[in-house]
Amino acid sequence: MVATDLDRVFRDQWGRVLAALIGFLGDFDLAEEAAQEAFAIAADRWPRDGYPNNPGVWLVTTARNRAIDRIRRDRTLVAKTRLLQVPAAVEDPLDTTSFPDERLELIFTCCHPALATDAQVALTLRTLGGLTTGEIARAFLVPEPTMAQRLVRAKRKIRGAGIPFRVPPAHLRPERLAAVLAVVYLIFNEGYAGRGDLAAEALHLGRALTELMPDEPEVHGLLALMLLLDARREARFEDGELVLLADQDRALLDTVEVAQGRAALDRAFALLGRGPYLVQAAIASLHAEEPHDWPQIAALYGELARLTGSPVVELNRAVAIAEAEGPEAGLAIVDRLELDDYRYLHATRGELLSRLGRTDESRDAYRRALALAHDDAERRLLERRLGELGDSPPSRDPGTA
Fold it and tell me: N or C end: fewer C-beta atoms under 10 angstroms in the chain?
């Protein structure tokens, strides 16, 4: 077995193995150490002895036995002595027909509302996604010790608050499912800005959720949305420069992901879904069409605004209205929104004012957007827009580029 095969097994099995161990041991840290040890043993043995028929079962069995051995050796873990009473049969290979998949319990535990959002995201990436602490820290632009502390605090909170390792009862699931989906989508958005590996982790989690909760329409809606957006990855950047939706080359769309996204969207519709992820996915699907059906896109944004009450959604509706009815109709909506610190509002105003020939006002709007931008690709795009209006933006300290 080559290294790429082991990497694939790690990606496919890490979350399932860790979930099974946490469910058995009731301890995140001990489960993680045992899982890491099992994968290390696999890397040593499998190339020599051959690939097991069921790698997940092999890994869980090996990790569980190592954890039991460690507990037996460590006399200070008095609180875990109950684990030593497990019948000897547990050290035999697991029955593959009854091997449980406890990833659903794990993701609901990681996304418990008692945890802060950043802790939910970090713990989900660490446990379900299998990312290292260093990888998570780099993804969210914080020092590794800071991220390590977040993970420690999250695990301590779970332990101290007695958060149960289980799917919540039916009356609590809508709120908790919303948190789970929000965390996965937040991870995807962090990756969509340029971190392809992070977006891939979110897609991996989204697919796992559809396996675990096949009858939840919003789960399929979220997967559809992520696939349809990710299909634009190659079209969104050209030579490192951000390309607006209207200027993107449709030939660069990933047609396989578009088809997969639309299949997931069809499944969500078949389950009678009406939630915000489904509506966003429907909008993303229409954006993959040519020509764009702007009245339909505007209508869907109106429904999404009704569901979310978000002024950002209303800003997107204004863009669609501008395309369907003209820039003046879109600007009338934009000017009613209270989003003064939101760079995209000012960039949108700049574009609409430019189309209306109100060049001075357009320059002011673009300058305001530029002052609020923090991404280099966005800054360069806004600077190009100002240049097209005959305005040279102020020079920047090279250290801030």
Answer: C
